[in-house]
Amino acid sequence: MAAIIVFGLFLLLILFGTPIGTALGVAGIGAILSFDLGTAMISRNFEANIAKFPLVAIPFFILAGNLMEKSRIVDGISRFIILLTGKNVGGLAIAGVITCIFWGAVSGSGPATAAALGLVFIAPMIKQGYDKYFAASTIAAGAGLSIIIPPSIAFIVYGNLTDVSVGALFLGGVIPGIIVGIFLIIATYWVARTHNFRGTEEKGTPKELLKAFINSFWALLAPVIILGSIYAGVATPTEAAIMGVFYALLVGTLVYRTITWSVLFQALSDTVMSSAVVMFVVSMAGIFSWAAATLGVIDAAAQLVSSLTSNPLVFVLLTNAVMIVAGMFLDAISITYVFMPIILPALKLLHIDPLYFGIVFVISLAIGQITPPVAVNLYVTANLIQSDINTQMVRYVIPMVIAAILALVFITFIPSLSLYLPVGAGLYTPIK
Q1: According to the model, what pLDDT value does residue 362 have?
Q2: 210, 155, 182, 94: which is closest to 406 by C-alpha?
Q3: Are residues 225 and 64 in contact, defined by beta-carbon separation less than 8 angstroms?
Q4: Distance (Å, rounded) from C-alpha 222 to C-alpha 207?
Q5: pTM as predicted
Q6: Contact 115, 380 (CB under 8 A)
Q7: What local confidence, expressed as pLDDT, does residue 3 receive?
């Protein structure tokens, strides 16, 4: 009965188009009131879910990404990469994916990356003769790398729920993120070659490449400062996020001179709105999870999940499939809060390393960001070409989804790809 009320009400609200955070909150609060769990627990859970130090990093990473976008710091690195790709088939699209890999080390949000790089790449791609739906799909797929390559909001939320070191998750996401990027580049090249999408009109000379590299210096330095401070043990992820904000301000005001008071106000305004949405979902999802756990729904669901298989690899593969399907309808943060309390007991029972699982878990969430019907990255880039998600866009994004799934399977079968860097850096001891 409890499970029907908690999950049934949540699913019913989703079917009626209710925003995810609201649906989670209504279902959770409804369960608390229906079973008389104590109205005081609503406010206590609301505060407890967001009053956590690791979560402070989220608004600062969002602000750092907004400031770097406003400062046009991405222009230098994109110009350098475009010159590198030259006249290769699909060169401009490939440059877009490679830039997404870099920008993933600055922005922890897929939609934010899709918006920032979509403005840089989509119009030039269309002008060069690329189909606008292909251009939008490519940038949307590449933007999904932002929640795999650190810093990542998804890793912060996962680490907060599972007590896995966020720094170890950040380091563990580097190699898998690059691997997914390579698979996406291969898919981009294949689609471009199939449809005869050309490269750029120019190929950089050594002198032009050197000049573009120098101009991209400040952009290349950003992830070194943000991530290097974490990996060197100098700063926590939250402190590194604050360093990123001050670095973006410094570069934007003194080097590029693009950040004015009005630009700064807009960046702060965008950050407040984005952070409020994230924290609202976090707080409502926490209330939902607490209510479900108190009523015993989580334990019952965890036992059911644990009984599906005793093979750790099969369990991870099944979970990957479920998360990809869930990503078609829910956002990454909601999925993490709804499913991880159910999955975590099974991880302990099957002795699955939570760091390794966190990496493949987030990759599956990234795939969900480009998988219709609810594909947030696609919605952002579709809006940039003044379209909706139609069959033409889906036709181009399917090869990207397949490539990402193949990369996920590859990384799932080789756990050392996720554990190599954090273990080697002494940030993590793998579960035996």
Answers
A1: 94
A2: 182
A3: no
A4: 24
A5: 0.87
A6: yes
A7: 62
8 token code pair: 């049934």
Amino acid sitting at position 273:
M
For the chain, the structural domain boundaries read 53-424
DSSP 182-232: HHHHHHHHHHHHHTT----S----HHHHHHHHHHTHHHHHHHHHHHHHHHT
Choose among 281, 252, 277: nearest CA to 64: 252
Through-space distance between the first and last CA atoms of the chain, rounded to whole angstroms: 39
* Residue linked to tokens 């350098």: 80
Q: How far apart are CA 198 and CA 329, in angstroms?
A: 35
Distance CA 230, CA 233 (A): 5
Q: Which residues contact 399 (CB under 8 A, 6 or more apart)?
A: 187, 190, 191
What is d(CA 424, CA 229) in angstroms, rounded to the nearest whole number?
A: 17
Q: What is the pLDDT of residues 147-173, one digit of tens each?
A: 898 888 889 989 988 989 888 999 899
Q: How far apart are CA 70 and CA 249, in angstroms?
A: 10
Residue 152, helix vs strand vs coil: coil
